[in-house]
Structure formats: C-alpha cells, structure tokens
From TrEMBL:
Record InterPro entries: AB_hydrolase_fold, CarbesteraseB, Type-B_Carboxylest/Lipase
Record domain Carboxylesterase type B: where: 3-489
Gene3D superfamilies attached to this UniProt entry: alpha/beta hydrolase
Name this polypeptide is given: Para-nitrobenzyl esterase
Pfam families for the chain: COesterase (PF00135)
Organism name: Devosia yakushimensis
Matching SUPFAM superfamilies: alpha/beta-Hydrolases
C-alpha cells in the first residue's frame, strides 16, 4: 500500500500491474442538502488514513434519455461524497503528462467510476490519468435564483485546480494537463474553455464527440426552472429544500419529456438535443457562448484535438419506426431544427438533394448527427483554428445510409490496455482487434504527451479541412467527408 498526503489528510492507494491507483479522492466537500446548489466547497479534513483503494459513490441519478441514456446510466451506489477523482499514475516520481477525463451521459447520468474507464490504460502508457465525478442534472445545471449557475462546470474547475496544486505528488506535471471528455464530457470541455476561471488550468484540450451544442440562454434556463417548480409543486424557494428523490424523479421526467417530445417554444435551443440540464450563458461563470468566444479568440488558447465517429446517430435511430418515410423524418426533426432557422421539411429536402441515396432513416441520422455532433465539431474546429493549433479526427468506417461507427464506439480502443480484462468493456464498445486498439490508444497518448503524431497528422485548416481517418482498415489523412455539410445549414 502507498500513503500520500493531500488536502484533507492522508490517503492510501494500491499498486496495480504497471501503475499505482488512488480512487475516489475528494477534490471538494460532500454535496450535503445544504450545499446542493452552492459552488463547490473546500475539502473537509478527515481523521486517520482514508481508503483510496476502492471506488466510492457517484452522483445520484435515475435512468433517462431512452436506450442511449439507459446504457450510460450508472448502476453504482449513489451518495453525497462524490466530488472525487480517480487517479492512476505510472510512478510517484518524475513529471509525467496528465489526462483529466470528463465522462458523458447527457449531463444527467454516468460517472467516472464506470468499468470502461478503470483499465488504467493511460497510466500503463506513461500518463497520469485522472477521471472526474461532478454534479449532474438539476444539482449541476438547474438555474436556482440566488444560487450560482453552472455548478457542474464549477465542479470541473475545482477539480482542475486540485490537479494543478496536487498532481506533482502523484508524479504528474501540472504544466502538461490535457482536459478531455466524450459526449456531454466533450460539450463540457468546450464550455469550460470559454470560462474565465479556466485560464491556466490545462495546456491541451480534447472535446470528443461533442463541442458547443448544449448551451442554454438565461431565458431557456428560467423556463426550465418553471417546469421544475411545476413538477415539484413548489416555488423557487422550495427548490432549495426539495427531497433529493423528488428532485431526481422530476429531473428524470423533464429529461424524458424533452428527449421524447422536442419543443422549441418550451426548451429553446435545448430542443436540438433534447437535453434540458445544460450549461447556461449567465454572464458570470460562462460569459458567452463558446462559439462566440472561439471566434474572438477568447477560449483557452491551447492546442486542441477534436473529432467524432462516422455514425454518431446510428444507435439513437433504433427508436425510429421501421416504416419511417421522409415526411415522418421531417416531422420528427422539425422542432429540433427550428433553433437553427430551419423547418423539418426544409432541411430534409436539402439533405435529400445532397444525399440522394439515403433512405428516410439515413436522412434522419444525417440531419440529427450533423445537428448535434458533426457540425458543432466542425464549426468549433474552424473557429478555434484561427487562433490556436487544432487537429481533427474521424473515427470508424464510412458506410452507406449513414452507417459506420456509432456514438461512443471509439472509447473501448482509446482506453484499451494490453492484457486488460475485456469483460470490463460494454459489448457495444468491446474491441475486436487489439493491434488496431493499441494504435488508437497511441494516437490519444501522443497528443496528451505532446509527442509528434505517429501518422504525420497535419493541423486542421478551414481551407483544407483534412482529418485523421481512423478505421481498422487504415489510418490515414483524408479530406473531412463531413466538412461541407456545415454549408447545408446556411439559410437560403
């Protein structure tokens, strides 16, 4: 066993094969009922030696968002002491590069404690890896008058500050921190990049299958607060004292309603994704939309790696009826595209012209996938590339009718370690080619370490939007096949 001193007291970790692990290490105080809607508070001291050999509780949550959300929901024990970090390090000596990873789950479900993230892959390849638990749903993102907004993002800032101040004790270099995440984790990376409090807390950024999609205006946020109060049968003051289980049930019901019945007048820009609890442009913690900040060079000026899978909405389309026609696709997309100035019929017509071989299901996948994932990643890459180095990737094969690698398909390869127990990986993310998985992991490791790319990967430039195409058949530099789709959304 290994004992270290951190803010709060002593912790005891353990030796794994090839690295040391310190699990569920607090970076802030427990989220008691009195602190539920406050900014993260300083770590509370403990007596004796805290056991850091086992995973602790995760943020309270109830499954939502259909089959995709159910797959991302944590079944692990919930609790109040979940503002924690899982740290794995190759050695306590030296100054290794650091990865700080933010999990996805639509800002309402998931955790850093899921088995897919416990492989120790980066620690085994020379990186100090840190995965973060943070407040989700209403706890993290509901606008509560008189309380700070964006508490989930403030948690991430507190975690990054803890890493800056303490990671050297774990053999990490605080000047070489890559801030990364997938899906809602990727959305969070882009949002934090636009926060004033993030300056100097990380030296590289990696939004993965997510960029600047899920951002609410204050008007949208206030509408959600009204919905929450109605669901709980209370007023704004009553939110502060609502029983946690009641809060979670109302959160689940509102998430399901927004996800299953998109409504622009009700949800505002959240109708695009159907995820209501999201970061808010409050003018304080998040002064402006990340894309606005990126255009002006006001996001964190660090090298960035960004990308998506080839079929981001393939799994999401499992909810569609088998007999879907183009009119049905337009109807289902209508409320979602209104925030972009389009009607469902108009955008489906435009996509059918551009993609004449696509079926109704393929058109729905193309429009929704571009709206939520591909286009935001392309726009953010373009805007940031004018001010800082950007590298863009595309993971998976390109298949007809918007087939290919679904959302999250790359995670198993990114977190693959030779000799690991593959049963830790969900079936949908289980790797089948260890050699390819090692190559994928090494691309991520090289970016984190600041090494030369193993594939001579050129920087992304809007005038020549090349990407690193990562597929089992080949890893090569090609023009981005999704780049021109951004222009499909330009109004007539």
């Amino acid at each position: 066993m290994t004992i270290l001193t951190v803010p709060g007291g002593k912790i005891e970790g353990r030796a794994e094969t090839g690295y040391l692990s310190f699990l569920s290490v607090p970076y802030a105080a427990p989220v008691t009922p009195a602190r539920r809607f406050l900014a993260p508070q300083p770590v509370e001291p403990w007596q004796g030696i805290r056991d850091a050999t086992q995973l602790g509780p995760v943020c309270p949550q109830i499954a939502t968002y259909g089959p995709v959300g159910r797959g991302a929901t944590s079944s692990l024990a919930h609790g109040i002491d979940f503002l924690t970090l899982n740290i794995r390090t190759p050695s306590l000596d030296g100054r290794a590069p650091v990865l700080v990873w933010v999990h996805g789950g639509g800002y309402a479900v998931g955790s850093a404690n899921e088995p897919i993230l416990q492989s120790g892959a980066f620690a085994a390849s020379g990186v100090v890896e840190v995965s973060v638990n943070y407040r989700l749903g209403a706890l993290g993102f509901l606008h509560v008058p008189g309380q700070p907004d964006n508490r989930g993002l403030l948690d991430l800032l507190a975690a990054l500050a803890w890493v800056r101040d303490n990671i050297a004790s774990f053999g990490g270099d605080p000047d070489r921190v890559t801030f990364a995440g997938r899906s809602a984790g990727g959305f969070a990376i882009a949002a934090v990049m636009a926060m004033r409090g993030a300056r100097g807390l990380f030296s590289r950024a990696m939004p993965q299958s997510g960029a600047s999609t899920a951002i609410a205006s204050m008007d949208d946020a206030e509408k959600l607060t009204t919905r929450m109060c109605s669901a709980l049968g209370t007023d704004h003051a009553g939110l502060l004292n609502a029983p946690l289980q009641d809060l979670l049930i109302a959160q689940r019901d509102l998430c399901n309603e927004s996800y299953e019945h998109h409504d622009y007048s009700r949800d505002g820009s959240a109708a695009m994704l159907g995820v209501p609890f999201v970061p808010i442009v409050d003018g304080v913690s998040l002064p402006e939309h990340p894309e606005t900040a990126a255009a002006a060079g006001r996001v964190a000026q660090v090298p960035m790696m960004i990308g998506c899978t080839t079929a981001e909405y393939l799994t999401h389309s499992s909810i569609l009826p088998a007999d879907l026609d183009y009119a049905d696709a337009a109807s289902l997309l209508h409320e979602r595209v209104l925030p972009m100035g389009w009607t469902g019929a108009g955008i489906v017509e435009r996509y059918r012209t551009a993609l004449p071989q696509h079926s109704p299901h393929g058109i729905w996948r193309a429009v929704a996938g571009d709206l939520v994932f591909q286009n935001p990643a392309s726009r953010f890459a373009r805007l940031c590339s004018a001010h800082q180095p950007v590298w863009k990737y595309l993971y998976g094969p390109l298949a007809p009718d918007e087939g290919g690698a679904p959302h999250g398909a790359e995670v198993g390869a990114v977190w693959y370690r030779d000799g690991m127990d593959l049963s830790q990986q969900p079936q949908r993310q289980r790797i089948t080619d260890p050699v390819f998985a090692e190559s994928v992991h090494d691309i991520w490791r090289a970016f984190i370490a600041g090494d030369a790319s193993p594939h001579d990967w050129p920087r992304f430039r809007p005038e020549a939007p090349n990407v690193l195409r990562i597929a089992e058949s080949d890893i090569t530099i090609t023009p981005d096949p999704f780049a021109e789709r951004v222009e499909l959304w330009q109004t007539r």
